[in-house]
Amino acid sequence: MNGTPTPSAALPKPPRKLKHLLTLVLVILLLWGSAHRIEASFGRLFKGLPNMWDLIAEMFPPKWTYFDNVVQPMLDTIRMAIAGTTLGAIVAVPIAVLAASNMVRSPWIYQFFRIVLNLLRTVPDLLLAALFVAIFGLGMIPGILALAVFSVGLIAKLTYESLETIDRGPMEAMTSVGANKLQLILFSVVPQMIPYFISYVLYTLEINVRAAAVLGLVGAGGIGLYYEKTLGFLEYDKTNAIILFTLAIVLAVDYLSTKLREKLL
Amino acid sequence: MIELRNVSKIYPNGTKGLNNINLTFGKGEFVVVVGLSGAGKSTLLRSINRLHEISEGDIRIQGQSITAAKGVQLRRIRRGIGMVFQSFNLVKRSSVLRNVLAGRVGYHSTLRTLFGFPKHDVELALQALGRVNIAEKAYTRADQLSGGQQQRVAIARVLAQEAQIILADEPVASLDPLTTKQVMDDLQRINQELGITTIVNLHYIDLAREYATRIVGLRAGEVVFDGPVSEATDERFAEIYGRPIQRDELLEVAQP
């Protein structure tokens, strides 16, 4: 500022590169170690290449006429995703409130609900579906329930995390006008949360459409059943038709949901 | 109307926010509380409607102890005390009207407020907006308004609340000089026309002299001045602040 150069000793030294280097070494070690333990090797990958090629060759051309058979199950898949997401979204609302530390005073309560949410998200959806199939039998109901449980875990977690960052001012104002706890939530929390919540529900719907497509593998309804059928009969051209169909649906849902979410936030 | 008896507040970390405060505010007074930041102005105001809990003493609002009140009773007392905040505390995504109507929730059950307000309340809210001259903004989103306008919406919320007392915690601290005047004028007009007891925390001492009927000076959580504006001379202010008045404590000088 005053024209005299600062002595070089006073200049801050750049951070040392050693830490990055050690991280890289650690990652490589972990990768190599893991591959070794599960007996993965490039040799086997190369041996499998011709098989892979055969499979792809059999997949083409896709059997487009098979579409007629799978339109209904595909619609069912989307319906399952919508029903499961909606059900999960409804249940997620009170749980998100109970898991947010600025809504509930007692750490015992919000920590409990957080653990529940973590548990819900740890169980893979296919396993959930298999469990529900065992309870309710084959069909769409177990699929819907599996997606609903998964949705609760995801939506409630995302919601409570943004719930904790909302502006406290309006909450204080509602306390000062003599509102009770529910009115406070209704007038100061809900209007702040609605765009986020809808965005999370749409995001979960995207994921659920993809998940619903494979739930049929364990008998939980939807297009997944047809994957299993066609694969079982080695009709790879049909499988390919379903894959492309699923891809188109997933892309469409993703596009719509992304556009909607852009508008919201 | 408002009585504070032997009120002390000690924060969990041991600092004394308020130290044995005894004050009585009468109906229709326009009181301005002055003092350095950290003197306990905000703590005092927030103790009156119990946004902050006090450690000792008793605060009575129209004869009822808010310190001892619980549940419905506490909410009833709070309903009669409107509060205006430095940061307006509006829900930015909601319409102006909805923000003002929020002032009415204390009069209704949760279910009633869930399914919309009675016509009477909507009229009341629009009248309140009219009183602060922004009725035409009723259906605008709150975040589309300027700071001064947002603060007037917050004042309208207090009016719709039909409060007998208004507490204003640094209501103009985030406004420019022109809108500061407008907001202070609104508060003064409401005080004079409706006879609402008004207590305002202010940083600028010239503003305090211009609007107050009574000035309370706080220093380190204690009342060091309490009297009419005529007695609040520069020398007395210097005592309140514990040092001579500085230029940035005068609105006219600090922001020409």
Automatic annotation (TrEMBL), chain A:
Keywords: Cell membrane, Membrane, Transmembrane, Transmembrane helix, Transport. PROSITE patterns: ABC_TM1. It comes from the Bacteria. Residues 74-257 form the ABC transmembrane type-1 domain. The chain crosses the membrane at residues 78-100, 184-203, 209-227, 239-257. It is a multi-pass membrane protein. GO terms for molecular function: ABC-type phosphonate transporter activity. GO terms for cellular component: plasma membrane. Its main location: membrane. It is found in: Cell membrane. Belongs to the binding-protein-dependent transport system permease family. This is Phosphonate ABC transporter, permease protein PhnE.
Automatic annotation (TrEMBL), chain B:
SMART domains: AAA. Gene3D superfamilies: P-loop containing nucleotide triphosphate hydrolases. CDD domains: ABC_PhnC_transporter. Residues 2-245 form the ABC transporter domain. GO terms for molecular function: ABC-type phosphonate transporter activity; ATP binding; ATP hydrolysis activity. Keywords: ATP-binding, Cell membrane, Membrane, Nucleotide-binding, Phosphonate transport, Translocase, Transport. SUPFAM superfamilies: P-loop containing nucleoside triphosphate hydrolases. The keyword DNA-binding does not apply. InterPro entries: AAA+_ATPase, ABC_transporter-like_ATP-bd, ABC_transporter-like_CS, ABC_transpr_PhnC, MetN_ABC_transporter-like, P-loop_NTPase. GO terms for cellular component: membrane. PANTHER family: AMINO ACID IMPORT ATP-BINDING PROTEIN, PHOSPHONATES IMPORT ATP-BINDING PROTEIN PHNC. NCBIfam families: ABC_phnC. This is Phosphonate ABC transporter ATP-binding protein. It comes from Cohnella nanjingensis.
